[in-house]
Amino acid sequence: MERILYTGTKNASSWAFRAWLSLREAGIEFKERVVDIRRPQRFDNLQRITEFSPSASVPVLIDDGCAIFDSLAIMEYANDISGGGLLPAHALLRARARSLLSWQHGGLSGLCPRLSFESAFYPETRPMTDEEHNDTKRLFRFLEQELVQGGGPYLYGDLSLADLALVPTVIRIYSHSPQVHSWPLTHQWIMRLLSRESVEEWMSAARDLPPVILNDYR
């Protein structure tokens, strides 16, 4: 049985990053096919995805001929077929982790759409807006609370999908140099995530690519 994960340009595809991380951390074997999602070839390349996925987007996981075409669904599937170790065993903590997953999947109340993943790789980044600072503080307050209550080293004890889902988010935030001294556990958690071998592998490949400049970054 062959599994194929269709991902996107590594410095522009945060959704695929999350799915890729989950499969890697679950120890699941798969082949990767990178779809160039830079303009102008983006639209033709994604149109070809419709041959096997209705969403015309990445990521898509093809497993035994079946297409799973949503990043969160791929993450949950990685957890399911690897024994369930990427979600907390306790039902309440599992629900809490899934709440955070859903919030992230919805864009963290608009923070992620405003602060693009692509911008994390720009040679010069703009200052964060007041709204972005406020949303970051709200997120970091929540993360600090979870780390205090759970005792670490990750949000719900062991590494989980909740941690992996937030990797692209903390990269885009951290690249804009926010003040994190007020949240020491969150800062340690970020450093722990960014030092994982899987994260370093993706980011090393992403940094080698030319930046994907978005016109609305201002």
Automatic annotation (TrEMBL):
Residues 90-212 form the GST C-terminal domain. Residues 3-86 form the GST N-terminal domain. InterPro entries: Glutathione-S-Trfase_C-like (IPR010987), Glutathione-S-Trfase_C_sf (IPR036282), Glutathione_S-Trfase (IPR040079), Glutathione_S-Trfase_N (IPR004045), GST_C (IPR004046), Thioredoxin-like_sf (IPR036249). Coiled coil: none annotated. This is Glutathione S-transferase family protein.
